[in-house]
Amino acid sequence: MKHCFRTRLITLMALCSFLSTGPTLAADSVEGLPPGTAAPNFRLPVVNQQAADDVGKWFGPAKWVGKKPKDPKKLTVVSFFATYCVPCRKEMPEMVRLYNEYKDQGMGVMLVSIDKTLEKRDEVAQLALENKVNFPVLHDRFGVVGRRYKAERLPYMLFIDQAGVIQKVHIGYTEEMKAQLENEVRAGLGLEALAAEKEPVADKAVGKKKKKSKKKKRRKPKKG
What we know:
Blueprint: H1 2-21, E1 44-45, E2 58-59, E3 75-81, H2 86-102, E4 107-113, H3 120-130, E5 137-139, H4 144-148, E6 156-161, E7 166-171, H5 175-188
Parallel strand pairs: 3-4, 4-5
Antiparallel strand pairs: 1-2, 3-6, 6-7
């Protein structure tokens, strides 16, 4: 009887302690790494042919950002994707466009595939080829880097500054995000935002027939 009472008392005390401190997993419920976090370093093999100088080599953020980068970048964009992810396929050509536009102004881009099997590597390389990707595409075959970065939903994009600190995080890819992405890149590079395009003003005369002015015909005088 005493043993049963003691067990209930311990259980009650543990419950009170849990309620007073709150759930311990609250921090883990936040998706992705929060801005202000130092981006974890990693090195993964490059799989795409466009990055011919680096294909087969191991590549990671330390080459572009951090304490002693070999090729310093003002802004590095890392995006996690998978071949089965439809929004990821839509994001890829836009990343190529932005990279081609801003690579000479200090922008670096790397894509990280979290496709699990080794056989998927060729499919990742083919997808990069079709989209003319000319920056490193890496293969996180065992998902180690994905877990370190908390890449649970795809696509998962991070903006990393020159010091190696995460400044912005995007999860998913929508038309609304696409519309604002270029100005976010420009801000990360220290450039002024692009002016918003003005909608063309509709011509009020369009679709309306102009009224023809009716002129009164003069009657010729009758001959007498």
